[in-house]
Design brief:
heterodimer; A: 153 residues; mainly beta; 2 domains; nine-stranded antiparallel β-sheet; elongated; B: 503 residues; alpha+beta; Rossmann fold; Dna Ligase, domain 1; eight-stranded antiparallel β-sheet; 23% strand
Chain lengths: 153, 503
């Protein structure tokens, strides 16, 4: 059985093998205990209980003090890669727009200031480039994930 | 006499106070905004009344509405908790004027300590040492900015800009170089206006390498004012505390005694009543300086409760009723550590996170206390502060308390919303935390380019295996359960779990 998850640098493929009630991958073994618990046996001898739950498309996994959020890509959909990354990290309000269309900016430069949860958050340029569009003005409410600005390298 | 207490707060601290009322045999009233109708604190009161309005200013900050509810429901006391109206002198005064007991100090004491510039001046007069700095009295933006610029050369760099009405890191900016001053001052003023309606800021020398140490005090109407020892809260991110402990690992009996006396003097200078906290910066030299006094219960009060055995909230209720505090001579016993669990992405500049608490399973065992206002199935929304819980441990020694905290954090499972659990767990392994050598710049110093988790080899593979196996085995029914619990006040049907999908 094959599953795809979204990783930091592209797709991660998991080719799953089943032997009896054991699931195998890369020398590690897992077994379902109940609807939220799997016992996990890693190839280096680490063993323990993992807690798991699915929220929307993402599987959340807790194992020995570590938490993972693994977004599953449904077969047949695009990989949904991040474009530019200048999106609202939280629902909030635009406090100030520091650039306008056509501005040349450098990596790390503050482009917009948002207020969310009573704190100010700076939206900064990830790379050098030119601002090709500004989608919101000061005072606008933005939803999480809204594209705020466009930056072309 | 106090017999019925309105708790003018929500979440974790409302739960803490409502339970104390129940233990003290007092009736209680919870007030809640409509988006809090399913919150835990609402269930803990003997009566719960919904506030009209949507925004925070129409609900939890709506003095008139809260006063009307207090009167119509027959309350004779209001406990403000922390945040919201807890340090609003005008509210404390209005409460008193309606013949209702305010659980806290007088409006005059709140005013003197609440305006940070006035507090500095009051403390100087009381002989309590303050941080070298300058107050900026100008209210007009242009004039204030000019005065800040002039004062900055006398105060010296690096310096700290602080909102006179500030707190919780809001309206506060560290300025390293002169060319950063104007931007920082404008942004601090803007944040201060938005949060407190008062843009006045003042300058303080930034004392790097210092510890944030605070003294808990209690004062009753018989004239008794005592201190309950110190808490160290140096480990902060974005000027907000994340890791607090009592006692301070490097405290000496001499400094504790001097600091305790200064804190008592600070409280007496404003005729303080109730529970309060005097915050100090403790320099490596052993010198200490007054930072501010918080005229309310504090988030980190549990660590003091665990090492002194005093129930501070219960004492607040007792003092408000005009009774003498019940605690006698105090002895510090063992060590307590608190961490603040936030819904936030520690690997992305501690950005607040939202989502469902699809799994929320706190640790258990001896010496563990959890103060929280949420439970499994709740939704973390952007409406309120992202603090989910305080995990507090007690053990006979500091070393054992750290060991217990590590184990507790490893056992704490929160799924569905990003939290700072792993960040807190890694903090427990930082050499400076192990030795107690923490200062207020530690997090920035350790992770100047931001924190990211150290994941053991194979763990990512293991998690992928678990996710893939869970998907193949069709365990994804839990989503429909958590979705149903969110935003739906009705009971969860057990039959929903039958919506299992077997691909």
């Amino acid at each position: 059985m094959q599953h795809q998850f979204k990783g930091h640098d592209g797709l991660i493929e998991v080719l799953l093998e089943k032997q009896g009630d054991h699931w195998l991958f890369n020398g590690h073994t897992a077994r379902v205990k109940d609807s939220r618990t799997l016992s996990l046996d890693l190839s280096d001898g680490t063993t323990g209980q993992a807690t798991v739950v699915k929220v929307k498309d993402a599987w959340w996994v807790h194992f020995q003090g570590h938490t993972f959020c693994l977004e599953r890509i449904e077969p047949g959909t695009s990989d949904g890669g991040d474009e530019g990354g200048l999106t609202a990290p939280m629902p909030g309000k635009v406090l100030e727009v520091l650039v306008q269309t056509g501005d040349v900016v450098v990596a790390g430069q503050a482009l917009m200031i948002l207020e969310a949860m009573k704190m100010e958050h700076r939206i900064v340029a990830a790379t050098d480039g030119t601002i090709s569009a500004v989608h919101f003005a000061a005072g606008d409410q933005v939803q999480q994930g809204s594209a705020l600005l466009e930056l072309v390298e | 006499m106090v017999s019925k207490v309105l708790v003018a707060n929500r979440g974790e601290i409302a739960c803490r106070i409502l339970r104390a009322c129940s233990e003290a045999g007092l009736e209680s009233v919870a007030i809640y905004a409509s988006n809090d109708a399913d919150s835990m604190f609402v269930e803990l009161a003997t009566e719960a009344i919904m506030l009209e309005g949507d925004s925070i200013s129409e609900t939890y900050l709506n003095q008139q509405q809260i006063l009307e509810i207090a009167s119509s429901s027959g309350c004779d006391a209001i406990h403000p908790g922390f945040g919201f109206l807890s340090e609003r002198a005008d509210f404390a005064r209005a409460v008193g004027d309606s013949g209702i007991q305010w659980v806290g100090p007088s409006p005059e004491a709140i005013e003197k300590m609440g305006d940070k510039m006035t507090a500095r001046i009051t403390m100087r007069h009381a002989g309590v040492p303050v941080i070298p700095g300058e107050e900026i009295e100008q209210e007009d933006e242009g004039e204030a900015l000019r005065a800040i610029e002039q004062a900055s050369s006398r105060v010296g760099y690096p310096l700290l800009l602080k909102a006179s009405s500030g707190g919780g890191g809001k309206g506060m900016r560290a300025v390293q170089r002169p060319d950063e001053l104007l931007d920082a001052a404008k942004s601090a003023r803007r944040e201060a206006v938005a949060a407190f309606g008062d843009g006045r800021v003042y300058l303080e020398r930034l004392l790097t390498g210092s510890k944030h140490v605070e003294i808990q005090i209690l004062a009753d109407r018989t004239g008794r004012t005592i201190h309950l020892g110190e808490r160290e809260c140096s480990v902060q991110r974005r000027h907000q505390k994340v890791f607090e402990e009592a006692p301070c690992a490097t405290m000496t009996e001499e400094i504790r005694s001097a600091m305790g006396q200064a804190a008592v003097a600070a409280a007496q200078a404003v005729n303080y009543e109730g529970a309060g906290t005097v915050e100090f910066l403790l320099a490596p030299s052993g010198e200490f300086f007054f930072l501010e006094m918080n005229t309310r219960i504090q988030v980190e009060h549990p660590v003091t409760e665990l090492v002194t055995g005093v129930d501070i909230v219960r004492e607040q209720l007792r003092i408000a009723a005009g009774q003498p505090m019940s605690c006698g001579e105090l002895h510090l016993r063992g060590h307590a550590i608190e961490v603040r669990l936030y819904a936030e992405d520690a690997s992305n500049n501690f950005l607040p996170a939202i989502g469902p608490l699809a799994v929320f399973r706190p640790p258990e065992g001896p010496g563990i206390r959890l103060d929280t206002g949420v439970r499994q199935g709740d939704e973390v929304t952007p409406n309120y502060d992202p603090m989910l819980a305080k995990l507090i441990v007690w053990a006979p020694s500091r070393e054992e308390a750290l060991q217990r905290m590590r184990r507790s954090l490893d056992d704490f499972v929160v799924l569905g919303t990003t939290t700072n659990l792993r960040f807190l767990r890694e903090l427990c392994d930082v050499p400076d935390v192990i030795t107690g050598d923490t200062d207020t710049t530690m997090i920035d110093r350790l992770w100047p380019n931001g924190w990211s988790p150290a994941v053991p080899p194979n763990f990512t593979d293991g998690a992928l295996l678990v996710a893939a196996a869970a998907e193949s085995a069709g365990l994804n029914m839990s989503l429909s359960v958590s979705n149903q619990m969110v935003g739906d006040s009705g009971p969860v049907s057990p039959f929903l779990t039958l919506n299992r999908r077997y691909p």
